[in-house]
Write a structure and sequence with these properties.
By secondary structure, the protein is of the alpha/beta class. About 30% of the residues lie in helices and about 25% in strands. Bound molecules: MU-OXO-diiron.
Length: about 400
């Protein structure tokens, strides 16, 4: 990419990484990506975001096409992940007097990136920065997708600089969404980016999005992919839909069962919950793929997990399912753990501990039944279901 004017005295100065095929270990990038950065000039000038380390020479060259680096007053840091901050140590070396503006939680991160003395200001919602003829309004947008993330609106040009929000990994070189060829499905790319990067934080995003309502947005200039001007609010609206709370049931009873004993416990729990007026879904974990597993977690207010114990541990499908909790927003979700066992039944506690470690609210009673349940044990299972039902109902919105 070159330095290209996108508005009066506003330039896109980012770089294209067309060779990248995997981003953040977890995400396929079929056409690569871009590390977008912008330069805004009023009476003073401000840089917005940087580049990955490997691309910093091109990034510095793009800046110098617009103006000398040392005449820039501010660096606005929307997020400190290395794909945007890799060029900052060299930037500070070349221009130690640049003033850094970032969200308040980003201050320690910035220090850990630049590792040198600098003028850093951590800002909060609605902080304004007037460059003289160009005014920014900042909005903290924590966990979109790091705690440090912020966005800013450029008042005169109606541009929202949205950091990773609403972004897509598209590295085909077009500056604007309306210039993409038919071969690129931008809707799919934005959703894929959301699923991989943003979905674990949907609860935070739900709280952040209303902050953007006040802005009349003409362009969304994010940190990856083309600038969105065709339908500027398209992906903000899509995010609103994706992060909305939608529950199919109160409790998903999700279990794995080898000889049918844990499955029998799941049936009793399911039935007792229903009798108590709690809506449920029984889900055999071994029949779940990842996408459906994520949906089950997201679309249930609470989850009861049934696991057998094998060789002192829960079984692999259970761990695979539990791994999915980290890929959706599950902080504070209520959970319970139960299972049948033959020797020690250690898997049940291991699962409960892991869920607690992932910040779920785990029902304090764990239920273990040895081999084939007796009548007394079935009564215990019914009592467990009743107690969990009450736990789920407590504090329900
Ligand atoms: Fe594009 Fe979260 O860095």
């Amino acid at each position: 990419m070159a330095a290209t004017a996108i508005a009066d005295n506003v330039w896109a100065i980012g770089v294209t990484d067309s060779e990248l095929r995997v981003f953040d270990i977890i995400m396929e990038t079929k056409t690569g990506t871009t590390y977008n950065s912008y330069l805004v000039r009023g009476e003073k000038a401000a840089l917005i975001d940087g580049s990955k380390l490997e691309f910093q020479d091109e990034w510095f060259a793009n800046i110098e096409k617009v103006m000398p680096l040392t005449e820039i007053e501010y660096l606005i840091v929307n997020h400190t992940e290395p794909d945007h901050s890799g060029s900052y140590p060299e930037l500070l070396r070349r221009h130690p007097k640049i003033k850094i503006i970032c969200a308040a939680p980003a201050v320690p991160f910035v220090n850990n990136v630049i590792n040198t003395e600098a003028d850093i200001t951590g800002v909060k919602d609605n902080h304004e920065l007037d460059l003289g003829g160009k005014k920014f309004i900042f909005k903290a947008t924590p966990y979109m997708h790091w705690p440090d993330t912020m966005m800013e609106y450029l008042v005169e040009d109606k541009i929202l600089f949205s950091c990773d929000g609403f972004a897509a990994h598209i590295g085909t070189g077009e500056l604007y969404d309306d210039e993409l060829s038919d071969k690129i499905d931008m809707d799919w790319e934005v959703k894929y980016y959301y699923d991989c990067i943003m979905r674990p934080f949907s609860g935070y995003i739900r709280r952040n999005l209303p902050k953007l309502d006040e802005f009349d947005i003409k362009m969304v200039a994010g940190s990856h992919g083309p600038i969105q001007r065709k339908e500027p609010r398209r992906y903000i609206n899509q995010y609103q839909e994706w992060v909305a709370e939608k529950y199919d049931q109160d409790v998903a009873v999700v279990y794995a069962s080898n000889y049918g004993n844990t499955g029998a416990m799941a049936k009793i729990i399911d039935s007792e919950l229903q009798k108590a007026g709690v809506s449920t879904a029984m889900v055999d974990m071994t029949a779940l793929d990842e996408a459906r597993g994520r949906d089950v977690i997201e679309r249930s207010r609470a989850v009861a997990i049934g696991t057998p114990t094998f060789n002192g541990d829960a079984v692999k499908p259970v761990w695979d399912f539990i791994g999915l909790f980290a890929s959706v927003y599950s902080i504070g979700k209520k959970a319970a753990v139960f299972g049948s066992y033959g020797w020690g039944g250690e898997g049940i506690k291991l699962v409960a501990d892991r869920l607690s470690g992932m910040k779920l609210k785990v029902y304090e009673n764990q239920l273990r039944t040895r081999l084939v349940a007796s009548e007394t044990e079935n009564a215990d299972t019914k009592a467990f279901a009743a107690g969990f039902g009450e736990f789920v109902a407590s504090g329900k919105k």
